[in-house]
Fold this sequence. Notes:
It contains one helix and 16 strands. By secondary structure, it is an all-beta fold. The strands form two sheets. Strands 1, 3, 4, 6, 7, 9, 11, 13, 14 and 16 form a ten-stranded parallel sheet that branches. The protein starts with 9 loop residues before the first strand and ends in a 12-residue tail after the last helix.
Amino acid sequence: MFGKKAQPPIKSLIAQGTRIEGNVKFSEGLRVDGEAIGDITASTEETSLLVISEAAVVEGGVTADHVIINGTVRGPVHARELLELQPKARVEGDVSYVALEMHQGAVISGQLRPLMVPSAADEEKPLLKLAAKSA
């Protein structure tokens, strides 16, 4: 699941010293170094990457395939594939993810909710039959 697709390029930047007010929708990759007040949502049509750097503050929900946080998010985080919480990450909100990588020092104030993704292997498991003892 992970590592099979190449990570999308970061084509957009909210630079340090910049404050965006309102919801942001993006495709492919977005890096946030500044401040965003509103939800940040990636398109579902392509693989997406959202990077929230150490100096960044997001007040709103974030949604993308691969989310990397090393700054502050005040709102729910939804990683459709992988969530990476780096040492200075601060999340104040519920977190949902398929896979989670959390470094020492990262803090979550909210509930963790793993997302279950059905795999082809799960669907093809054979039924187990118990052999009856013959007397």
